[in-house]
Amino acid sequence: MEEMIRAENLGYQYGSAGDMRHTALRGINLSIRPGEFVAIIGHNGSGKSTLAKHFNALLVPTSGTVTVKGMKTSDPRNLWRIRQTVGMVFQNPDNQIVATTVEEDVAFGPENLGVPPAEIRRRVREALECVDMVEYVRHAPHLLSGGQKQRVAIAGVVAMRPECIVLDEPTAMLDPSGRQEVMRTITRLNRDEGITVVLITHFMNEAVQADRVIVMESGRIVLDGHPRKVFSEVETLRALRLDVPQVTELAYELNKEGAGLPDGILTVEEFADAIAGASHESRAMEGAEDGRAHPMSIVREGADPARDRRAKNSEGSDRAGCRGRAATAWCGGG
Amino acid sequence: MTVPIKVETLSYTYNPGTPLARTALDDVNLEIGDGEFIGLIGATGSGKSTLIQHFNGLLKPTRGRVLVDGVDIWQKDVRLKDIRTKVGLVFQYPEHQLFEETVFADIAFGPRNMGLGDDEINARVRRALELVGLDFEAVKGRSPFELSGGEMRRVAIAGVLAMEPSVLVLDEPVSGLDPRGRDELLEELARLHRRSECTVILVSHSMEDVARLAKRLVVMHKGKVVADGPVREVFRMTDLLKEVGLGVPQVTEVMHELARRGKDVRTDVLTVEEAKAELLRLLRGEGRVR
Amino acid sequence: MFGNLTIGQYIPGDSLVHKLDPRVKIFITLVVITVLFLVSTMAGYGLVLLFILGAVLLAHLPMRFVMRGVRPLLFILVLTFGLHLFMNEGRVLFRVGPLVAPYEGAFKGFAMSMRLVLLVLATSILTLSTSPIELTDGIESILSPARVLGVPAHELAMMMTIALRFIPTLLEETDKIMKAQMARGADFETGNVVQKAKSLVPLLVPLFVSAFRRADELAMAMEARCYRGGQGRTRMKQLRVGAKDILAAIGSTAALVAVAVYL
Fold it and tell me: For a Cys staple, A129 with which of A326, B282, C62, C68, CB 3.0–4.6 Å?
């Protein structure tokens, strides 16, 4: 099955020569499958942002290759098709909104692609429904909250009909409620629209929501796997001075004393279940939490997360699926 | 004992008398004691930023008074410049205010505005850099713009510390930093508080951070102070905190959840270590851990 | 400081004037300006003023708000009037010391001031009733035939849009940096001109740094969204000239030209 993004022996150096030269990426090998939700964590300067910029040819490798659906990013002829396939959302919500109203901004991408006006209107509408921002169509961006601005930025990418969205620390500048809004939007796009998501973040409670977590340090990938597996490596993460969710750390500490709790506990519910036994209510929640309770090996062992997700949403999960459903299934929590 | 900051029936309205009028503070009363470490929390728009800008006279109350060391700062004969050296305010993303050619010159900006002599300025810059964990000799001559993000933030904070204020107010000092940068800066803040005994007011969105550092929490909601007390007491009020759009640290939440499921555990734990001790007691009691 | 500037603001509305094609509105504004420079009688200015007041009413704009836009001009108006009043020769109206104010000077001064006021009012109506985006689209569309001559119509319009988008952001930022520096004891208010100019350095340097950072990030975000200049680009909103636009253009032009010719 075709890969969404593939990096082979990817290396990247900033600067041309001498003192200014700085190696940001070293020998990265990575494959991201369609429909996956991948979180990349690591310190500033670990290379995660540089890596992300390779996924839509904002940067091209100085050694090795990156391919997007088989297209080499180093070939300039592929540039625009790659950027349409892989959309990108950045950290500062203010510095990626181009236009003076929400709808004009969402239209910016499709306009660049030369989409006919009537079709642009339809896409803008759909994209805003996707991020639950329809009522703000004519608002000026500077009057929106941080979370709302970021959702507009996501809509601007969605309107280009990408198959993959790369988000470079989209929540770093937001308050907790803004962060939640953005995370809800991202997980929904991944589950309901089948869009591949690559999320770069410092917040571990966001990374645990992914199917797969990649940990980077000094331009290399040091851990790669299901969140349960990655976060059970508490010692490794501590040595890197990265965060571990408090419950994961607590379980790990108790296990050192022989408590015998399961590995890789990620949420308060899971922890409470492990200590107090699963209550009826929390089991129901787990069911609703979809796929989250998979055995940890699933991603690495060649299963296709996109496939089970699509099976789950088999009722007409085409690209225009946002329409109408947005108001019921997903916005309920908003 | 002196009271560094006292706020009496303070109200503030943005754009008064226009259709855009918005009440940001509504009858706030607050007393901040000498040497306290206070966490000021609240959702966006709750009025925290407006409140702290009253502490050093950047905003003028629409109603009520602000007293610094017992003096109403809007009295005629009070120089606001003096107030601002007593109450140091570090804004969010303070690195955005750096402007000088060298780190030294930038940190010296505050002391220079105070009219201090060169020797005193030199000593203060040195102390301030040391407090934020940077090496004076290594960075004094460098351009602040070629430092890393975390270092720039430290230099900017040093720029306020060099005025040697008796109250230090920080608005979200760790936002945007990675976990390592965040931990280091928070540790430095704790050390600073211990060593210089200055009063610290930390505005934060992270319940984990305030739980770790602050002794007292002030919770704001819609321009009012809705809770004010020792950290443990405040984090006991989970319902109130949820209602105002805040949470409690994840470990505290775990203990509440366990108590809800009938386990006999303390719910006022704040850190992983405390939770571990409490749960070990529980598990030992149940015979699950020796 | 920016609160009482009427020019450049936009009041959303549903009026006939709001709904006109921006190009038609730009055209009519240009006609008004031309006529203002051709007219030389009191009656002529009066009729143009009537035309403008009519437009304000049709656009459902608050009259007082529109008139307030003249206020920042007050100094220039007084200066213009004063200069013309004393710099002309003719029948003496009154004397102030060595200065002589003739009737002709009074009339000329009044006419010039009137011209300025009407000029400002006409342009205010254009910007008050046309959203910045429409205005930009209108300018782009008017300039686009000049593209063959090398006029970068699309790029100019894009620059205007981005400038409009970032003005509020930068104003907010200015306020924030100012406060941050004041918290470090900076003083922006007292001192002589040189001291005041010097005190702006701690404000301007961070502003420039941030503006460049924003420009850099925005450029990357635009590229990531497949922006590659005006070529091959479509627009969501198409400008279309309808019957009411043609009528408005013909009607206004005819009336204004008549004023210019007969008065």
Answer: A326
Structure tokens at B285: 């009691």
The answer on C123 and C30 residing in a single domain is yes
pLDDT for residue C110 is more than 50: yes
Partners of residue C173 in chain B, C-beta under 8 Å: 96
Q: Same structural domain for residues C25 and C108?
A: yes
For residue B59, the one-letter residue type is L
Does the pLDDT of residue A311 top 60, yes or no?
no
Contact yes or no for A83 and C162 at CB 8 A: no
Nearest by CB: C133 against A104, A114, A124: A104
Helix (H/G/I), strand (E/B), else coil: A242: coil
Question: In the prediction, which pLDDT does C5 show?
Answer: 53
Q: Which residue has the higher pLDDT, B169 or A317?
A: B169
pLDDT interval class at B26 (50, 70, 90): very high
Domain contains C171: yes
Q: Is residue C200 part of a domain?
A: yes
Residue-level pLDDT at A18: 63
The span from the CA of A56 to the CA of A85, in Å, is: 8
Q: Considering the domain A5-226+294-333 in this protein, what is its CATH number?
A: 3.40.50.300
Token couple for B238? 């989970």
| Residue B65 reports pLDDT greater than 80 | yes
* Residue B226 Cα distances to B28, B65, B217, B238, B240, angstroms: 10, 19, 11, 13, 9
Same-domain status, C186 and C254:
no
Residues in chain A whose beta carbon is closer than 8 A to a beta carbon of chain C? 56, 58, 80, 83-84, 87-88, 90, 92, 94-101, 103-104, 107-117, 120-121, 124, 140-142, 153, 156-157, 160
According to DSSP H, which parts of B17-135 are helical? 48-55, 80-86, 103-113, 118-131
Please give the pLDDT value at position A332: 29
Can you tell me the distance from the alpha carbon of A313 to that of A319, in angstroms, rounded to the nearest whole number?
12
Nearest-CB residue to C234 (from A111, A140, A157): A111
Q: Which of C183, C201, C210 sits opposite B56 (nearest CB)?
A: C183
Report, as an integer, the average pLDDT of A44-62.
94
B280 contacts in chain A (CB < 8 Å): 254, 257, 259
User: What confidence tier does B1 reach under pLDDT thresholds 50, 70, 90?
Assistant: low
Q: Which of C177, C185, C187 sits opposite B96 (nearest CB)?
A: C177
**From residue B38, how far is each of A216, B35, B196, B270, C15 by CA, in Å?**
35, 9, 15, 15, 54
Contact state of A175 with B179 under an 8 Å Cβ cutoff: no
Residues C23 and C97 in one domain: yes
Q: Quick one: average pLDDT of A224-229? A: 95
pTM for the complete prediction?
Answer: 0.85
Minimum CA–CA partner of C235 in chain A = A111
Q: Where in chain B are the domains?
A: 249-290
Most C-contacting residue of B89, B97, B112, B147 (CB-CB within 10 A), to test interface? B97
The pLDDT tens digits for C15-31 are 999 999 999 999 999 99
Whether C1 maps to a domain, the answer reads: no
The complex scores an ipTM of: 0.91
Residue C88 domain boundaries: 16-130+239-262
Q: Is B233 on the interface with A (CB under 8 A)?
A: no
Tokens read off for C168: 């509020």
